[in-house]
Fold this sequence. Notes:
By secondary structure, the chain is mainly alpha-helical. Helices cover 84% and strands 0% of the residues. The model has no long low-confidence stretch (mean pLDDT 93).
Amino acid sequence: MIAKLAVAATAGRKDEFHSYAGALAANGGDITTLMRSALGETVGNQFGQAWTAGNNYFVDYLVAAVTHDKAKQDAAASGMSGTYVPRMTGLLTSSLSLTAEQAALLGTDRVSGLKQIIDDAVSSGFAALHDDLQSAYAKAIRAGDQMAEAIVSRFADRFPGDVQSKAAAFRSGLDALLLNQAYLMTMAGDATVAGTAAEQSAAAGALARNASSLTALFGGVFGSAAGTQFGSVWDRESLLLVAYAKSGDPGIRQNVINVAAPPLGTDNIFGPDLTVEITAVLQAVDDQRAKSFDKLAGDDRSAATQLAAAGDTITDEAVRQAPAKFL
């Protein structure tokens, strides 16, 4: 969301910026709800308030950078490191029993990663932006894993099972990559509809790398042939979606949906039907083409959430049909 905000702001697309600002706030609300369910109302709310404060600093830094207000930019950067990081560090050490060093690293990683993404967008360094976005995303996933494992360790009665099982690792990895795929596809659509050639090229490269990661994930469990087959599906989807964003051709749009229909994925493992999820991604692209910014960010976020949740279904079916692969 921060990356999408940054691209919109630096391009002067104010309505798009405001749309994603709303989605960023909604995401913060979801994180607060999740942490309340795990840590209780008081600590969960404190976590959500700290998270929101961090988001506010990031947005302030972005706006100041775009408007070339050095004083406000420096003030926001100071708030990130001097207020947000210590506040989050204190919460994580007191509620999850992480060491101060571990907790501080989670906060500083988030600050440095998102700050760099904003700097890249302001300088129109789209190749660097996508590289840094994936680095920040990977760090965010590791932070989520670390916090989740600490929560499970502290509240084992609420979260039975093995958090480090092969199936759990596969599921979390697949969910993260599919969420990334959805957001990268709509970033590619945005670049095609409203962006520059450099932005389009960078988004295409990021999609190719995510497809390679999906190939590696599947190949690591089901073998290289199965991994290549699954990854190639996402390569095809990306190319078709960009073509649709450019032309609006209903035939191409239907082809995007057709590729998501069974059989999708690996031979004799599962054949999930992802047409609903891919249709949701296409809705976000339709919003981009129509400049329906009042709906865009919400539809974008909904599509990513749906595609990530499909990873749970895929994992459940894979474990059911091939349990030996997950021992």
